Amino acid sequence: VNHDGPRQGYKFGYMPYKLTNTAINNEELTKIARDEIDRLGTSLNESAILSCIKNDKRIVLHHTTPDRDLIVRTNVDKSIYSANTGRVIIANYTPAHLEKCLIRLGLPSKQEWPEIYASDNPQGELVNRLAEIRAAGYEIHQDSNGIVGVAAPIIKSRHVVGSVGVYMPKMRYTDESAILAAVLDSAAEINRKIKLTEDINIY
């Protein structure tokens, strides 16, 4: 993967998105998903976030704060590669969109995604890892600080538009299946609400 020149984003015109109805603006996504993110955070009593990709960064659109002494906080904007809520979004890009994204971003650093450097072919391993995330329908990651993140994509008309995720210290990541189920259920509920909306356009 080559990474030459400034990091330029690709802008898609208003009309193609309106015709295919595959996109959603961030304000509308937040409006639709906010209550479900709040419910998820309350049910697990952990930090829950709604995210999207903007300017090649994972951006937090909405978050909850648990009623605990030890709270996991995430940056409002973060590297796509280092945030599993970012990884799960680009893993669900169309092949053409993903290819353009990877050319812009280049390989992640060893700090952002150390696991891919266990392979003699980091570029191939990156593509394989993203394919595994897409096939699974979620991403679970534990960082070097002992923080566990569980994330799932938000889909509109078979196109990814964002992600839902929860973060917690490893010591509270005990009922793994229940936590994953809660995240997947929230993503499914947001997807259902999005499907009910009409005439949502991106600008």
Mean pLDDT: 87
Tell me the number of helical segments per DSSP (H or I, 4 or more residues long).
6
- Shape summary: globular
Helical coverage, percent range:
25-40%
Biggest β-sheet description: 6 strands, antiparallel
Strands of the widest sheet, in order across it, are: 3-2-1-6-5-4
Spell out the helices and strands N to C: HHEEEHHHEEEH
Molecular structure report:
The protein is an alpha+beta fold and 203 residues long. The protein is 39% helix and 21% strand. The chain contains 6 helices and 6 strands; from the N terminus they run H-H-E-E-E-H-H-H-E-E-E-H. Strands 3-2-1-6-5-4 form a 6-stranded antiparallel β-sheet, sandwiched between helices.
Write the layout of secondary structure elements.
Blueprint: H1 14-20, H2 26-44, E1 47-54, E2 57-63, E3 77-79, H3 84-90, H4 95-105, H5 122-136, E4 139-142, E5 147-156, E6 159-169, H6 176-196
Antiparallel strand pairs: 1-2, 1-6, 2-3, 4-5, 5-6
Helix pairs in contact: 2-6
Features:
single chain, 203 residues, alpha+beta, six-stranded antiparallel β-sheet, globular, disordered C terminus
State the gist of this model.
The protein is 39% helix and 21% strand. With 203 residues, the chain is α+β, with helices and mostly antiparallel strands.
